[in-house]
Backbone:
């Protein structure tokens, strides 16, 4: 007897379940399905990504739909187009033997008129993104006033993407006596507010502990200098020849840059972010599922639609701004009972974040070292040897063997093996033979950190470039995409300046200004190891009077107007993390 039968599911769904090869319900399915089948109730289910939530609400919803009526009876809201399509396809598979049931997906990036026609033909279940659903409601293209069931899937992510108002407006068009099923990985206050406003005494289900990571995922971190982050990524890839991974970056710009660099360096990689057209995103995901791409570089929002069971590694090229987002990332691996690895590349200034993540996921990270070139050569050689040992012989080569043997007849077996493997060994050895050690001791001091937890920077622009403290601060905020209080303690001199940001932005800032030009002139930003006075004096001495203007010590003193900026550094930088970077740059 299939264990799904014990949950009370009907014959048609059990037949589909058997055909799909499902045998044992996941924990969230085991807890939610019997309640939703037997009761007309609201429910709040907290479960991590990859735990089988779609079936947990999909099976009961299909069972409760009246296939003899063509009116819309169920609405499912999901954060992204990819997830919307994924849910729709899964529901169609679940309802394969439920004759007369139609599920329609509506989302941005496709013809709204065609989607309206699909709904008009009859759609008992609509799966929608909030933005497109609100648009169709405004145009009176859809009627959800008679639905009996509303599912909010990945509710926390929808709110994190800024859909709070849309969700409120959409739910206001639904009947009060409907059942609302809310599924989320976390329970921020906005989700709790929606539950309180639109749900009636909901039953609560929590799978495992809130925000805990998958038991099949191991967590590792590697400490490197910020400028060595990309080199570290390549070494981790080379040390894992069978890697099939998702690499997470914070912004679209970083995502595109890392993917382009990987492709240039010969890796099978691609970018997935909100600036791609829908057709481009579809092609990238198709290539990834077919394993034509080994390394998919993605933003957090774009990755919400990734549903691939065989991902071996998740690599956090940068830790997310919201620590809870880490659980979503790591949930992309370790699925379907398989093990996975979540790697984090960090600088010393980010080490405190590791402890914060550990507290949330209730798992310890293992500190590891970036492998050396010699270790990578060894791994690659043994990988090649194993591939050769497992390869089946293609007998079409037989006709060529006499000529091949004639070319190689002067070499012994040992010499042939050495020559063959030298081809692969030389490629990696030549690349890594002079490679430096990328690992950084976490115990060494970091004099760039101020007592308030921020980092101070030197920038080679100042008054002679037309800046005062206010215009330079505005320039930095716009260039770096930081929020109102993201830049503080701006101190402008004649030909150079200083400024502070929270230390967690250090890698991003150095990357932005790595090759930045303003009116043809290179703008250089460095971490200041000393106070403004000492830094200016040292640079002047080293550069033979590179700074113009009078040699007077008071010229290097802070201007005493730090009070407001210091206050914002101490207070504002700890709040409103979602506002620090434009929402569109996260997708």
Residues:
């Amino acid at each position: 007897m299939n264990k799904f039968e014990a949950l009370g599911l009907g014959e048609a769904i059990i037949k589909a379940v058997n055909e799909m090869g499902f045998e044992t319900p996941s924990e969230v399915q085991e807890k939610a399905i019997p309640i939703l089948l037997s009761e007309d109730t609201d429910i709040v289910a907290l479960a991590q990504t990859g735990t089988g939530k779609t079936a947990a609400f999909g099976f009961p919803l299909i069972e409760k739909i009246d296939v003899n009526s063509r009116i819309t009876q169920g609405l499912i809201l999901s954060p992204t187009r990819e997830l919307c399509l994924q849910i729709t396809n899964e529901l169609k598979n679940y309802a394969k033997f439920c004759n007369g049931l139609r599920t329609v997906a509506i989302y941005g990036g496709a013809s709204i008129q065609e989607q309206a026609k699909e709904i008009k033909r009859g759609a008992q279940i609509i799966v929608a993104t909030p933005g497109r659903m609100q648009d169709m409601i405004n145009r009176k293209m859809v009627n959800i006033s008679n639905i009996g069931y509303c599912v909010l899937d990945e509710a926390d992510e929808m709110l994190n993407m800024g859909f709070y108002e849309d969700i409120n407006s959409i739910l206001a068009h639904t009947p009060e006596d409907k059942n609302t099923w809310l599924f989320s990985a976390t329970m921020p206050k906005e989700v709790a507010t929606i539950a309180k406003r639109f749900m009636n005494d909901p039953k609560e289900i929590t799978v495992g502990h809130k925000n805990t990571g998958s038991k099949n995922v191991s967590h590792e971190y590697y400490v490197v200098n910020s400028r060595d982050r990309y080199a570290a990524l390549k070494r981790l890839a080379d040390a894992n020849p069978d890697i099939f991974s998702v690499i997470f970056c914070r912004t679209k710009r970083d995502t595109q840059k890392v993917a382009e660099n990987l492709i240039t360096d010969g890796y099978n990689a691609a970018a997935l972010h909100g600036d791609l057209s829908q057709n481009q995103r579809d092609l990238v995901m198709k290539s990834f599922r077919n394993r034509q791409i080994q390394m998919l570089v993605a933003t957090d929002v774009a990755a919400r639609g990734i549903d691939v069971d065989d991902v071996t590694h998740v690599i956090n090229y940068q830790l997310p701004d919201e620590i809870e987002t880490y659980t979503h990332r790591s949930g992309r691996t370790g699925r379907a009972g398989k093990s996975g690895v979540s790697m984090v590349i960090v600088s010393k200034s980010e080490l405190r974040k590791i402890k914060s993540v550990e507290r949330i996921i209730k798992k310890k990270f293992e500190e590891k070292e970036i492998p050396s070139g010699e270790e990578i050569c060894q791994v690659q050689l043994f990988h090649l040897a194993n591939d050769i040992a497992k390869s089946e012989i293609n007998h079409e080569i037989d006709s060529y063997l006499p000529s091949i043997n004639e070319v190689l007849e002067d070499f012994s077996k040992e010499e042939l093996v050495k020559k063959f493997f030298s081809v692969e060994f030389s490629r990696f050895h030549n690349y890594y033979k002079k490679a430096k050690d990328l690992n950084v001791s976490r115990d060494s001091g970091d004099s760039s950190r101020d007592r308030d937890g921020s980092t101070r920077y030197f920038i080679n622009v100042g008054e002679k470039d037309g800046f005062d403290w206010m215009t330079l601060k505005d320039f930095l905020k716009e260039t770096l995409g930081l929020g109102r209080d993201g830049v503080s303690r701006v101190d402008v001199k004649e030909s150079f300046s200083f400024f502070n940001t929270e230390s967690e932005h250090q890698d991003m800032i150095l990357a932005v200004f790595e090759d930045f030009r303003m009116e043809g002139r290179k703008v250089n930003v460095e971490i200041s190891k000393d106070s403004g006075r000492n830094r200016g004096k040292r640079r002047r001495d080293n550069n033979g009077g590179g700074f113009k203007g009078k040699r007077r010590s008071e010229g290097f003193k802070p201007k005493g107007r730090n009070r407001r900026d210091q206050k914002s550094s101490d207070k504002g930088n700890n709040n409103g993390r979602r506002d620090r970077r434009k929402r569109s740059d996260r997708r």
Notes: Residues 444-451, 530-586 have pLDDT under 50 and may be disordered. Residues 5-206 form a domain with the Rossmann fold fold (CATH 3.40.50.300).
